[in-house]
Design brief:
Layout (H helix, E strand, L loop, with lengths): L22 E9 L17 E3 L4 E8 L5 E9 L5 E10 L5 E12 L4 E10 L7 E9 L1
Antiparallel strand pairs: 1-6, 2-8, 3-4, 4-7, 5-6, 5-8
């Protein structure tokens, strides 16, 4: 099941196109500073979330036939107990401070299981030499 969810990200790095059974969000302006932390319009308490870059096993982010639209694919593996993950993907030029991004929530990822994801229809933000950046957060 997919459902739209508005979001504000005070981090960078976000993608959204969804796996079956996850929540997706449309392209929204976000802060594009990779050192910032993500938050949503329905904030999750800080004690319940943590950045989980070590759980991102692979990421491939490429332009589609339309160079203004990219797709990201990758695999995460849960290094702790079963949890939901929030993945944010952004395609923007280095130094971009605000940009459209996409976000997905991947629910109930089991411990030690390689879990693939795909994020389609990533908007490319204006600028030269865009690159794909991602943020992975473990919820709960």
């Amino acid at each position: 099941m997919r459902r739209s969810q508005p979001f504000l990200v005070a981090a960078a790095l976000a993608a959204v196109a969804c796996l079956p059974g996850c929540s997706g969000g449309g392209a929204q302006p976000v802060a594009a500073d990779p050192s910032a932390t993500a938050s949503s319009s329905a904030p999750t308490p800080a004690s319940k979330t943590r950045a989980a870059p070590e759980d991102l096993l692979s990421l491939r982010c490429v332009a589609t036939a339309d160079p203004k639209v990219w797709t990201a694919q990758g695999v995460i593996v849960n290094s702790a107990s079963t949890a939901d993950y929030r993945l944010t993907v952004i395609v923007a030029s280095p130094g971009t401070t605000r940009a459209a991004a996409r976000r997905i929530v991947i629910p109930k990822v089991s411990t030690g299981v390689d879990t693939p994801f795909t994020v389609d229809r990533l908007p490319v933000n204006p600028g030269s030499a865009p690159s794909c950046r991602v943020q992975l957060v473990r919820l709960g």
